[in-house]
Each structure stands twice: as structure tokens, then as C-alpha cells.
Amino acid sequence: MAKAAGATRRIKVENLARVEGEGALSVRIRDGQLKNVAFTIHEPPRFFEALLRGRPYSDAPDITARICGICPVAYLLGASLAMEDALGLSVSADMRRLRRLIYCGEWIESHVLHIAMLHAPDFLGYEDSIRMAQDHPEIVKTALRLKKLGNHILEVIGGRAIHPVNLRVGGVWRSPSRDEVLALRAELDWALEAARGLVGFTATLPMPAVERDYLFVALHTDDHYAVCEGRIVSSDGLDVPVQAFHDHFSEDHQKNSNALVGATRDGRTYHVGPLARYALNFDQLAPEARAAAQAAGLGRVVRNPFQSIIVRAVETLQAVIDARALVDAYAAPDPPHPEIPPRAGTGHGATEAPRGLCHHAYTLDDTGHITHACIVPPTAQNQRSIGEDLWDVVAAHIEADDARLKWVCEQAIRNYDPCISCATHFLTLEVDRA
Amino acid sequence: MSTDGSDAPRRPKLAVWKFASCDGCQLSLLDCEDELLDVVGAVEIAYFLEATRATVPGPYDVSLVEGSITTAHDLKRLQKIRRQSKVLVTIGACATSGGIQALKSMADTEDYIRAVYARPDFIKTLDTSTPIAHHVPVDVELRGCPIDRGQLLHVLTALIQGRQPRLPNYSQCVECKRAGTVCVMVAKGEPCLGPVTQAGCGNLCPRVGRGCYGCFGPAEGVNTRALAGHLRAGPAQGGSGLDGPATRHLFHTFNANAPGFREEGQRHG
């Protein structure tokens, strides 16, 4: 495309599509030189941390779940773990397995939604998955069935797919019977092949060539691919308990964004989510998941953000494999939850939401009411990483026409499966007194 | 070959809009896995940012509106959407009552600011979170936090076929009795909003031995005061023995700003 000397190109996306929440993007190029890239979040603030103050500890899981309709389990469990830490409770091995099983359901539902409905259309040149379904009906139908299985796991254990009602501090209200859980097995058997097929499909997608040098951060535990327990580790050797999160990571409030922006305490950008988990927990993947990753052409570490779609598919397969094993080993937790005497304290909890590490911290008074709450969701932590990716992506496509450049920038933001509603929950209000 | 030949009836244009919310209610549409491809075949998806970057200008036959109004900009956007929409359906507790974020309307705003403000100069919001019907006429209201996807499909099907949707206006208690669910209040003294909450979820909470927490908001003509008296009465009187703040917290969650729940909560501690 011909460019006049001194021309300024502006690419603007005022309302990003196929993301969860409201975000915007603007790119400014002058004389063929990239001058500015801004990814902003304009989701209206809902300031959950303020409205939690004064509420009993037992309200936190259900209230924080309303931060995000796509990953409510991340909030239900993150808040529960933090409260259990504050109250000095430990839950049984049976309950920990039940929690991992429902979280597998959320990973399957959220990952498959993102892979097939929100992200794959970018790679294949479709506006959406409905148009994609006309040319690739089997891919979309298989994805819908997998997604339904994820939701069904949430319903069997949680009572409802969006904002499950059966999870609580200390465990569940009612332990599902062994028969109810075993009934999931047949569909999980089907899902094994379907998830493998999904990895194969994502491996065929054309990948823009961008490599980034990320500082990865994720939960890690030696005995399984970490979902809702473990220590916080990083690719530069950090290895700390979840209680130390705020000693190593911080958040800033930047202009034009209704979300806080995460960085390490020494000011470095870091990256959470599938690429981080995959790099840090590769050895904990099931052999079949590792084999599928290898067949898809992935190494032990993936630094091309666009390949996150393949890693998400590998993690979907991992979640199916884990869910099958957890179903087979299921013993109904008894009792479903302990008696919980309130006490004063501070507690921390962290889980791997589908989009990455999600950290909760609360302080309680001696009646068990919340005096302070702080929640750090994955998209806020990834906001700087998204911005830096965009610089490289725009630089690599600077010769492309505006429509193509806009397309690939949107696709690059969707690499993060950004959950903008989550990123925005923090902020507090400004009263418009005019 | 186009399937939209001149002989084929025009498909109704469906738009999905978001205000302050968690996205869960519009996700309910994508969660209709078995019906999704049929639904998108029966309507023209004209605006649904969570699902597609393609947009079609208004007017729209049916607009689904999620979320509450918390900024001046959103209020202007809503008014434009109403002008462009033949039928406007609000979906979920944020849109029908203001949602959990409506608690800010009841808080001491100065205290909120002191406690949590990072950089107030960067943020613009109103000090209220109001339902859609406060600002524009609403044709159909779908309750729930989140909405029930069966009810969503029922409403969409009815509107596509030009029928009036039929939604329950009775309380959760009726749903529990019909399903044979044991009453958690009678059996365990569990605090439960079922007697004053609109049916529609399928008595999810009592089925797991938990009291209803009012996702679907107040049913028509309910007596919140009588229920509050029962919640506060001691176990010896057959009550749940809640104190004032606990009673207020029960009424003031996801439908805190709904008429009935708002006032009842405010009467207690």
C-alpha cells in the first residue's frame, strides 16, 4: 500500500469483539515508524473489594464469583482457599480431588469456548465461529459437545454451570454421590479422542511468526499439573508460597484504564496463563498430553504467543485426562464441610484460572467479617505483556494494510483470552458531583 | 447461493448489549450448546460482541441487554439502543435490579473513596448502579444471577414466533414443593429467601441443602417483613436466629437494589 511521506496511520478498535468484557486498542504509526500502541480497558469499574468489607467470610466465594461469568470457579475456590488459610482450616484429600474435578470442568468449558468460538476464527479469516461452522461444521460441533461436557461437570458438582451454588468455604454444601460422578465417565471417554483431535486441529492453523522472551509465573506442584494448589514459581527461579505473592508482585493504576496493571516488585513485566503453566509444569503433563504437544510441533517451552491456542488445546486434553482419573478415584467427601469457628486472621489463596494465576487475600476480624480484600486476576497481571506483544506484532506486520494490521492486533490480544470484566473488578469509584 | 432469497421470510435481527456485569448472562446464550446453531439459523446475529466482530447497524428486532448503568456514557448508549430496538429484553440481576455493584449506592461513598481509591482522577463513574428499567421502557425481564438458559430459549423462541413469553411470577417455595425438595428452613432452620424470591432457577440451592440466596429477586406481592421476622426469631420459635447485619446481608446481595429486598435489608442493622 502506498504511503505518502509524513503520513500518520491510526488503527483503532473501539470495542474489541470476542473477548469477555470491554476493551479498546489504538495504534499510531508515523512515517512507517510505530509510535504508540495502547491497549485499554474501559469496562465500568464494579469495585468488589470495597463492597466485601463488613461482609462475613462466608459471602466472599459467591460475591467474588460475580466478577466473572466465564471463570466463576476460579473465584469460588480462590476465595475459599484464602478464607481457609485465614481460619486455619485444612480440607481433606477427597475434597481437594473434588475441587480439582470441578475446576477441570471450568478449564474444559472456558478453553474450548476460547479455542473454537473466539480465537480459531482469527486464524482462518472468519468474523466468528458461526461463519466458521459453515465451512468446518465438525470442528464447531465437536467443540460444542466438549464445552457442554465441561459445563456438565460444573452442573453435576456445582449445581449450575455459571455461578455454581454448591461450593463454599470448607468444601461443598452437599457431596455428590459416587453414582452421580461416575455417570460423567462415558462422555469423558469420548472427550479423550475429541480433545486430541482439537490439539491436531489447532496445530494446522497458520501461525504468525513472533517470538517473545517471557518471564513466566504459575502455580506448581510436583505431583500433578497444578490447578488449585501449589507454590508460585517463575521461569527465573522464584519458588514461594502463595502467601508471599504480594512480596514479589505489585499493581499500578494507569491512566485510561479501569484496571490495575501488574508487574514484579522490581518493575518487570511477567506473563501468566497457558504458556506459563506449560513451560513451568511440562513434566507434570500426562504422557498422552506431552505426546499430543510433541505431535503438534511444540517444544518444552512455547514463546510464540499465537501458539497459545495449541497449548490451550493441550491443556484441555490434560483436563480431560485428569477428570477421568479423578472420577475413577472419587469418594464422596464426608462430611461435606466442617464446622467453622470464626477467628481473626489474614489468608491467601491462589488458583490457576483458565487465563492464569488468580490471587486472593483477605483480612478478617474476630467475628469472621472481612476488613480488607485484595484480588489480583490474571488479565490485570498480563496487561503489560499484552501491550509489549502488540509492539512486536505491529512491527512484524507494519507493511500490512490497515484492515490486516487491525485483524492481527485483535488476534494478538485474544492470545490472552482476556477477561476484562475480571481485570476491572478492582477499581473504586469516582463520584460525578457535577 | 444465498439462502436469503426474496421469498424467504426475513430473519429477526438479534442484538446483545453489555453494561456493568460479569458477562455470565450473555454467556448463557453460548452455553446453549445443543440449540446454538439452530438459534443462529433462526435469527440474524446483528450485534453480539462476545461472539462476533461483525456488526450490522440497527434497527434491531430483539435486543438482549445485560448489565447495570454505572456511567453517564453508558446511559447515553442505552438510550440509543432503546431507540433502535423493537423489543428490549433485560437479562439478569444487573440489568433488572442493578446487580451486586448496586451496593455502592447504599454505602458511605466518602468511606469507599478513602478505603480503596488508587487514582481517582483516572476513573469516571456515577455513584449509583441502576437497572435498565430506571432509564428506558423494558418489554421483557429475565431474572437471575445468572439467568436460566431454558428461560432464555423460551423467551427467544416466543419472540421469534411473535408470542408473548410466559415466565413464572410465583415464589421459589412453589418450585420446591412441586419438585418435592425438602424445605431447608423447616428441616434445618437454614436461612432461606425462597418464600420471597421469584421461581425460575429450578430450586438449585435447597436441592443441595442450602438456603436460597435470592438470585432471581423478589417475586410479586411477597411479604419480606414476615420472612425477616422468621429469620431473626430464635430456633426455639422455629426461626434461624440471625442478627440484624446477617439479615441485611441476606437481602442485600445480587438483587440488593430490588424494591422489597432493598427496604427490608435496610431495616436490619
UniProtKB/TrEMBL annotation, chain A:
Fe cation binds at residues 71, 422. It holds the Pfam family NiFeSe_Hases. Mg(2+) binds at residues 49, 375, 425. The keyword Metal-binding applies. Ni(2+) binds at residues 68, 71, 419. The keyword Iron applies. It comes from Roseospira navarrensis. This is Ni/Fe hydrogenase subunit alpha. PROSITE patterns: NI_HGENASE_L_2. Keywords: Iron, Magnesium, Metal-binding, Nickel, Oxidoreductase. Its cofactor is Ni(2+); Fe cation. GO terms for molecular function: ferredoxin hydrogenase activity; nickel cation binding.
TrEMBL record, chain B:
It comes from the Bacteria. This is Oxidoreductase. It comes from Roseospira navarrensis. Keywords: 3Fe-4S, Cell membrane, Iron, Iron-sulfur, Membrane, Metal-binding, Oxidoreductase. Gene3D superfamilies: NADH:ubiquinone oxidoreductase-like, 20kDa subunit. GO terms for molecular function: 3 iron, 4 sulfur cluster binding; metal ion binding; oxidoreductase activity. Its cofactor is [3Fe-4S] cluster. The keyword Oxidoreductase applies. Residues 22-159 form the NADH:ubiquinone oxidoreductase-like 20kDa subunit domain.
